[in-house]
Write a structure and sequence with these properties.
38% of the residues lie in helices and 12% in strands. It is an alpha+beta fold and 48 residues long. A two-stranded parallel ribbon has the order 1-2. The chain is globular and about 35 Å long.
Length: 48
């Protein structure tokens, strides 16, 4: 809820039992992407 309130583009979580389970529904209704840490790292690699 705070991530949406603060207009974050992405919410990173390991919580597959609750949050990520409903990823499609959340992303369809709210302006946020839900990602596992591994997905986030693949999409936004660290510049070195």
């Amino acid at each position: 809820m705070l991530a949406i309130h603060n207009r974050c583009a992405v919410f990173v979580t390991c919580d597959q039992r609750t949050i990520l389970r409903y990823r499609a529904e959340v992303e369809a209704e709210l302006p946020i992407q839900l990602m596992k840490p591994s997905e986030f790292i693949q999409r936004y690699p660290v510049l070195r």
